[in-house]
Specification:
This protein has one domain: Rossmann fold (3-Layer(aba) Sandwich), CATH 3.40.50.450. Helix content is about 35%, strand content about 15%. The protein contains five helices and seven strands, in the order βαβββααβαβαβ. The strands form two sheets. A five-stranded parallel sheet has the order 2-1-5-6-7, sandwiched between helices. Strands 3-4 form a two-stranded antiparallel ribbon. Strand 6, helix 5 and strand 7 form a beta-alpha-beta unit. Helix 3 packs parallel to helix 4. The chain is globular, with a radius of gyration of 16 Å. The relative contact order is 0.18.
Amino acid sequence: MKITVCGSIAFYKEMEELKSALEAKGHEVRIPLLRNEIPEMGGDRKIYFAKYIEDKGGVDAFPVGHTLWDMKESAIRDHYEKIEWGDAIVVANHEKRGVAGYIGGNTLIEIGVAFFLKKPIYILNPVSSELSYKQEILGMKPIFLGGDLDLIT
């Protein structure tokens, strides 16, 4: 099966591990690319958008039309193409900022794209009830894996 992994870039290491585990089970897997993130000045290192924005004064420090939003648009479109390519998505949702089963805004819209495209939506861990949009996630009828990748069919 062709699988696209979705999740917060804060979980990048976990997504790489998930990709390897899924490939070991015979799946073809795509994950977000860090090349689509913000290049740090003076080096080849990448930093994810949310951290960069936070470190540089918050979202309002970047007005509409700022180059940052062009890069963000490109990263979003790139991942939507991966979702369209795949047969299903697997959402990596781990603990973030004290919220177990975290799913952020960008991952929520990726789930929505998969739902619209009628692709199976697998979610690795239970979704926190602290998320105000948990009802929207449940309404898209995901399959909860409880960490068990063998449930992907």
